Amino acid sequence: MIFGLAILLCVEGYFAFRLHELSEQQEEIKTEYSNINNITFGLFSVEQWRDKVSGIVDNQIRDFSLTRKQKKELRKEVEQTVIALIDKAEALVNKPKKTLGGKIKKFAIKTFVNTDKIRAQAPEFAETILAKVDNKGNKNHLSRMAMSKFDSLERAEYLDSTVAATKKVTDKVFEKYRVSSTEQLNKVLTSSLGRIKTATYSYSFAMLGCIAVVLSVWWIFRKRVDLHATLFIMSLMFAFILLGVGLTASMIEVDARIQTLDFMLLGEHVTFKNQVLFFQSKSILDVVSVLLGQTAIDSVLVGVLILVFSILFPVMKLSATGIHLLSGKRIAENWIIKYFAFQSGKWSMADVIVIAILMVYIGLNGLLQSQLSSLNIKSADLTVITTNNTALQPGFIIFISFVLYGLILSTILKFISPHDCD
Q1: pTM for the full predicted model
Q2: Fewer Cβ close by (within 10 Å): the C or N end of the chain?
Q3: Confidence band, pLDDT 50/70/90 cuts, at residue 14
Q4: Are 319 and 346 contacting, i.e. CB atoms less than 8 angstroms apart?
Q5: What are the extents of the domains in the chain?
Q6: Which of 313, 341, 339 has the alpha carbon at shortest distance from 325?
């Protein structure tokens, strides 16, 4: 039995190690994903807007063309403008001159320039101007001019810090995953997260399967008093593994994002996808660490309370039960050992933490769902679709299992203890 349980304990330890490792890996990948797709580097990025708008302007100029009706109307407008300029020039020439030089210029122009002939050429001028406007080479030149203006934005002083910060973050992540674009990176990270999620839940349920086997062994050998002490100590080791994973693995994940934002600009679609508004993934130890690192005394006090009553008390309780069962009567009935073994449960807040996290999840999920749904817009000109990916993580399942398993062990101890339990 000891050999079998020892093997099972090693198996559960391996599952716990892999679960903890994958939980950290998942948090790291999701943090990198949220950084790359953060709204700061997307919807709020001047560089992103510059690229999208410059592409639209480039397409608009290169694909610019006039219909027959537009050409006819524009030709008429150009002719009228040319004729108006000729009339204005002729009026200036015919204006009385006071100086000798002015009179000579007037005489020369009236002698050598035939304004009626120039007016007759107005349609030809208009046709030439239209041909220049619709010329492919000229449109490419205009496109290059427009693009040079957008490219100059990259050198603007007020963009230097933002562009540099964005490039530093993206280049580092691109190099790590050996990709060259955000689209490729998102595919790689999404695929990795899918595999990790499946694996973490598999390891979680495998750990619970190990606990179920231990409880089954208790039921099978419930009448073998000579095996109870050994079996209980082995059971405590399983409990410590559950507690370790439950405290360090991610328990809740808050993820709010704009899934799609699409609108029309100059007749073309401008689209931003997977814009992360907020992301946080925390374990119980992470929460304690954050609270203890605050300057506000009330936050530090809450952190200390969680540390003492939800972490230290369960550890002391498990240790005290083992000492009580294995030690002689004098040590076993020591009031400190007895207190932690049988009476500290009413002070432990592990079960309270479970309820608190569940209530926080329900509250946050409802609040985010309500706020994000108010951002959803669907019209001909603008489409906004939000998504709330807030979810409980495997660490929560493991911690609940530890709390329930601890209650069962406390009940078992009261039946098998050879010492006074009061």
Answers
A1: 0.70
A2: C
A3: very high
A4: no
A5: 2-59+161-416
A6: 341
